[in-house]
Known about the structure:
Chain A has strands at residues 6-8, 13-15, 24-30, 33-41, 46-51, 59-63, 69-70, 76-80, 85-89, 93-96, 101-106, 110-111, 114-116, 121-134, 140-147, 151-159, 166-178, 183-191, 198-200, 210-215. By secondary structure, chain A is an all-beta fold.
Amino acid sequence: MAKQNSIGNATGSLTVDPGAAGDSSLQFSISGTPEFVIGVYDTDDSFRISQGNTPAVNDCLIVESTGVQRRPLNPLFAAFRETTLSNVTGSNNTYNISMDGESYDIGGHYSGVTFVAPVTGIYLVVGNIQLQELTTTHQGSFFALLTSNRNFRGNTYNTTINKPAGTMRLVGSCLVDMDAGDNLRSNIRTFGAGTNTVDVYGEATNYYTSISGYLMC
Amino acid sequence: MAKINSINNSTGALTVDIASGDPAVQFSINTVAKFKIGVDDDDSDKFKISSGSALGANDFFIITAAGECTLPLTPSFGAQNSANDLNVTGDSTTYTIIADTEIWDNGSDYNNANGVFTAPVTAKYLLCGNVYLDGLAAGHTTVEFKINGSNRNILGNGYTSLTSGVQAPTCTNIVSGILDMDASDVASLEIKVSGSTKVVDVYGSATNFATSFSGFLLS
């Protein structure tokens, strides 16, 4: 006879078993409204924690039979420049970098320039930028990742010697604390010239200028 | 009448349902409460796995109604250097950067007195660092920035033996990577500038991550 759902007080184990093919799950509800369901999804024998009452519909955590873990609904985004922005800095102008392309945006928390933290947590943020049309009149560039709580200084240069001209790539990455509703963006400031002649490069295929983030914990 | 916990043998689902309060399952050993899983009715119906006997006290896994997952007790730290450290390198001196102000330190594994993170368990850790250098001069030819770990090092961006000298007077160097660490292994940030005299400063800021060190237990 197939096993049945049971509470074994002698062994201390609580067994959930449909006794036939199907999902083996534990439903948590409040006053009749299904909130979360946890259990084994029979189709691939993965362990899942899902919203509502059906595994594999709104999965928050999936542990595959190999042990690989995924969090499909966790906030995650990557945005980038698809097209080049011309003449945005060079004369000490601070430019908040707008992204016109999105590769993914789980939760829809990034828009244009800014990512808004949906919950309080620690976020991994990564950014990069390619500057073009630098000349020997330019003395330096500062690339930064800015959040409501604090700013992160990425690659910078500030030089009176060995001035680079042409193209330069700057990067930044950090773990940062964000409260719910806090903002994240990146900016660039190049100085040394009298006018803004420095471009922020973009293209549709690769991440020459981008920002991405992920809720870590 | 309020619904009660039920076992439905025909569908395979075991339902925990109460009129109000936390629907939960308690895992205990010899009557000592070890872990509890369920929905926290007092905290926006978040799903939680908590140690002990109560949801909301020692939550180590939380899922919000929107599906966002947080791991509040997973080892993680972030610290920044709050003030300038003057004349620490430039003459090939290797300087261990001390990010002296902790922003967060889940598990208290980072020592803000010496800049050393100690792995609490054997695992893979994401580590990130940056340093803002000031005082670089024309004679400085090499900048080496790295995460010095017990098993191996991760090198950041820098310059090596430039005949023309490095950019001066300031630059920011970045390093990040995933490091394998055994329990009690250590990791710290190190900067070494060579080629001239010991006049290079590590910049600090009380508000921003101008020079910082952070890490997180990945898996």
